[in-house]
Design goal:
The protein folds into two domains: 9-104, Alpha-Beta Plaits; 129-440, Aminopeptidase, CATH 3.40.630. With 448 residues, it is of the alpha/beta class. An eight-stranded mixed beta sheet has the order 5-6-8-7-9-12-10-11, sandwiched between helices. 36% of the residues lie in helices and 18% in strands. The structure holds zinc ion (ZN).
């Protein structure tokens, strides 16, 4: 029996039966006084589907392979009530799940982060250029700080730039996208970079902004390889796609908001922008919920959300004039590079699958060389099946070798990470971007 994304418990039971009986699991109690807790658990992949369907507010993050087939280690960010309900149902319905370690009350981390951020140094127009990068990457940044920083960064006179409004958000805000290259015009083979599809994954946003910083500053400084890449290619970047959601994560109660801010009309808000993409034939078929309250709500129809529509239109516009070759969608976290298919265990035909594997491995090696990390390049479905995501969409609709980066958790935490992790984590992601850019240069004939 196939297990669909919203399968009822008997279906889950049938999936569970495929695995050996587990030791009796248990869940920790919520910390006293905590409104939310982060718990780390091991679950069957099929259990993830059940969990997201039964506990729509669950925020599941930091998935890691365990070395055992079909078992993932994940972190669940649960309200006190939900954790109590999970405690009741865990032994009965979770099959192979087992608690690894309770990690205490994440709310305390959020409170500490908020207090720290209130004191942060900011980049402004008076910040000396030589200090801008160091100040910016000291800590996480709100939307206005990111936009100002990017405007200042992309004012670099040595490069060619075009800033466009690539769409409007659900709440009517502009989505800003930058085209940039070294010299020779903006019609050349192109690499697309995107951040903040998931609003609460701040480290992914920082990784995207860092990649732009290194490319542009490397070009201005005359770094030989960067000059070669930047002159040969165009980079198109939308560092904050989910503007409404990102702004919401900076409000007093919104830090862990993931989706956009669609008013679903039933008291709930938001569509998961990494579940709302096409292709239409797979939309909402796996790892997505039709429950508007769910963190993985796929939306009322494919590409119903203006943020995702605008991304698709942007890519189509680029392809009218130039080849769009590789793309990166920055997320957090898991130390993973994901490539299609994600909606299904079906494999891409050769030689396309080989391309994804070879470039995936090149990125993995480059990334792990930075900090000795343990990133893995895997077919997206091997994390867990989900449809409507970036990588399946850009491949099927646009023929782009797209990767989702699930960034690392170098100093612990996932959505809430210490600021000291920003530079080492971002440097990893930049190493991957460079590989994606090198790949995009492969088909360009050498200069005569
Ligand atoms: Zn994400």
């Amino acid at each position: 029996m196939a297990c669909g994304p919203l399968c009822a418990n008997p279906c889950v039971q049938c999936c569970m039966n495929a695995s050996a009986p587990p030791p009796p699991p248990s869940l920790p109690s919520p910390a006293p006084g905590a409104t939310h807790s982060l718990v780390s658990v091991e679950v069957n992949r099929s259990t993830v589907e059940w969990l997201l369907a039964e506990f729509p507010a669950t925020d599941l993050s930091n998935p890691k392979p365990t070395g055992r087939p079909d078992v993932l280690k994940v972190e669940l960010y649960q309200s006190r009530d939900e954790l109590e309900q999970l405690r009741d149902r865990f032994p009965r319905e979770f099959g192979a799940a087992a608690v690894v370690a309770p990690e205490g009350a994440t709310q305390r981390l959020i409170d500490a982060e908020r207090a720290r951020l209130a004191e942060r140094r900011r980049v402004d127009r008076e910040t000396p250029r030589a200090e801008r990068k160091a100040v910016f990457f000291e800590d996480f940044r709100d939307y206005d700080e990111i936009m100002l920083y990017l405007d200042l960064l992309l004012a670099e006179p040595a490069i060619e730039v075009r800033k466009v409004v690539s769409g409007q958000t659900r709440e009517g805000r502009d989505i800003h996208t930058w085209y940039f290259t070294g010299s020779g015009g903006l019609v050349k083979p192109t690499v697309y970079l995107q951040g903040s599809a998931h609003a609460n994954e701040w480290m992914g946003t920082m990784g995207c902004v860092y990649a732009l910083t290194e490319l542009i500053e490397g070009y201005a400084a005359g770094d030989q390889e960067i000059v070669q890449l930047m002159d040969a290619l165009v980079f198109v970047a939308t560092p904050v796609l989910n503007v409404d959601g990102y702004l919401h994560t900076w409000t007093a109660t919104g830090r862990n908001w993931r989706k956009n801010r669609r008013d679903n009309g039933d008291g709930s808000f938001g569509v998961d922008l990494n579940r709302n993409n096409g292709p239409e034939r797979t939309w909402c078929t796996a790892g997505s919920s039709t429950n508007p309250s769910s963190n993985t709500y796929c939306g009322p129809s494919v590409l119903s959300e203006p943020e995702d529509r605008s991304m698709g239109e942007l890519l189509a516009t680029i392809r009218e004039t130039q080849p769009l070759i590789t793309a990166v969608d920055f997320h957090t976290c898991g130390s993973l590079l994901l490539w299609p298919w994600q909606y299904s265990y079906e494999q891409l035909p050769l030689p396309e699958r080989t391309d994804f594997e070879v470039l995936g491995l090149a990125q993995e090696v480059a990334i792990n060389a930075v900090n000795g990390g343990e990133w893995q390049s895997i077919q997206g479905v091997d994390l867990y099946p989900h449809s409507g995501g970036f990588i399946d969409f850009v491949w099927e609709e646009h023929g782009v070798l797209g990767y989702t980066y699930e960034g690392s958790s170098i100093l612990g935490g996932c959505h809430v990470q210490p600021p000291e992790a920003i530079l080492p984590s971002s440097a990893e992601q930049y190493a991957g971007v460079l590989e994606a850019a090198r790949w995009a240069m492969r088909d360009i004939p050498p200069e005569k």
